[in-house]
């Protein structure tokens, strides 16, 4: 099924769908989301400083045509209130309620960075609703690393000076290579990514989004940081859904060891090691990520009845 994914890794950036978000009323409350593409459903979960917009970029970067991607704002991001789910278990329950409201029986879950814990919890809590997991640059257990100084500067900028965030957004637009230095520290890899005709625009899109409505992204980001700094203790050996883990070897935000341990503990899990990849490896290693994700989703998607 969908064997063409293997032959044509590029071209997913322009998935058909509505770029304007809608608020879907669930049992827990309204959830903000967009729908892209057609086919078996895939729930796209963003990481820190995200929202439905960055989840949409995740779908268009790591995803392939032939699927319907539901890109949501997780609790604490943009239009979805943090009160709808602070813990992975609460967020997993919210995802189930969202699927019920949309009339979707089963999904794969594609999650990046801080979206990973709730994706894993969804597969644990609702195995009958999850036909696959794609976990990218993410966590499954406590990460005790120190937060970069840039995070604290960002918090101050958001709180006290909207002009600072506007200036940073303008700088990112004017000099994308410089704006990408924190995201991709290797100069050769960074230049290759920024100048790539597809990866470069996708990376710049995420950079612009980060500075757009930043105050509405802070509550969820702080909640994600608190979660990954605590002991998650997920019973990963109980996950039944097929799983693909993709992770860069030089990721300083979510260490590569997290991916190795995750793949080792989940029965039958696949691990794609992205040599030299950092936390933004979906852009720097776009072709590898998309081709492997396409093969995985195509192999495990429910057959049309």
Detailed description of the structure:
The protein is α/β, with parallel strands linked by helices and 305 residues long. Helices cover 44% and strands 15% of the residues. The protein is built from 13 helices and eight strands. It has helices spanning 4-7, 52-62, 88-102, 116-125, 149-160, 162-174, 176-179, 187-195, 199-210, 215-228, 256-265, 281-284, 286-300, and strands at 22-25, 30-36, 41-45, 68-72, 107-112, 130-136, 243-248, 270-274. An eight-stranded mixed beta sheet has the order 1-2-4-3-5-6-7-8, with helices on both faces. Strand 1 (22-25) and strand 2 form a beta hairpin. Mean pLDDT is 88; it is low at 1-8.
Provide a quick synopsis of the model:
The protein is an alpha/beta fold.
Give the tags.
13 helices, 8 strands, alpha/beta, disordered N terminus, 305 residues
Helix content class: 40-55%
* Strand order of the biggest β-sheet: 1-2-4-3-5-6-7-8
Strand-pairing-aware structural class: alpha/beta
Q: Profile the largest sheet.
A: 8 strands, mixed
Order of helical and strand elements: HEEEHEHEHEHHHHHHEHEHH
- Poorly predicted runs are 1-8
Computed CA radius of gyration, to the nearest angstrom: 18 Å
The chain-level mean pLDDT equals 88
- Total helices: the number is 13
**Could you give the count of β-strands?**
8
Q: Given the C-alpha coordinates, what overall shape results?
A: globular
Beginning-to-end CA distance, first to last residue: 14 Å
Q: Quote the beta fraction.
A: 5-15%
């Amino acid at each position: 099924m969908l064997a063409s994914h293997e032959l044509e890794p590029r071209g997913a950036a322009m998935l058909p769908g509505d770029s304007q978000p809608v608020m879907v009323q669930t049992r827990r409350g309204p959830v903000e989301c967009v729908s892209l593409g057609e086919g078996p459903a895939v729930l796209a979960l963003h990481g820190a400083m995200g929202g439905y917009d960055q989840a949409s970029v995740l779908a268009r970067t790591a995803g392939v045509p032939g699927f319907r991607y539901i890109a949501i704002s997780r609790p604490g991001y943009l239009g979805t209130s943090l009160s709808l789910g602070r813990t992975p278990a609460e967020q997993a329950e919210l995802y189930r309620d969202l699927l019920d409201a949309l009339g979707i029986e089963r999904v794969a879950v594609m999650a990046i960075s801080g979206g990973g814990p709730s994706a894993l919890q969804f597969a644990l809590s609702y195995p009958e609703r999850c036909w696959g997991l794609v976990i990218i640059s993410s966590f499954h257990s406590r990460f005790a690393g120190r937060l970069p100084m840039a995070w604290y500067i960002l918090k101050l900028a958001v709180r006290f000076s909207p002009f600072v965030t506007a200036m940073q957004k303008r700088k990112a637009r004017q000099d994308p290579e410089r704006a990408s230095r924190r995201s991709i520290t290797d100069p050769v890899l960074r230049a290759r990514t920024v100048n790539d005709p597809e990866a470069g625009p996708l990376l710049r899109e995420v950079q612009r989004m980060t500075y757009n409505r930043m105050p509405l992204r802070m509550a969820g980001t702080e909640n994600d940081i608190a979660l990954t700094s605590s002991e998650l203790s997920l019973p990963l050996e109980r996950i039944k859904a097929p799983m693909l883990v993709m992770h860069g070897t030089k990721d300083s935000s979510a260490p590569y060891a997290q991916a190795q341990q995750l793949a080792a503990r989940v029965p039958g899990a696949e691990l794609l090691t992205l040599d030299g990849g950092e936390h933004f490896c979906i852009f720097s290693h776009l072709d590898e990520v998309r081709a492997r994700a396409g093969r995985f989703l195509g192999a495990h998607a429910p057959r049309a009845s």
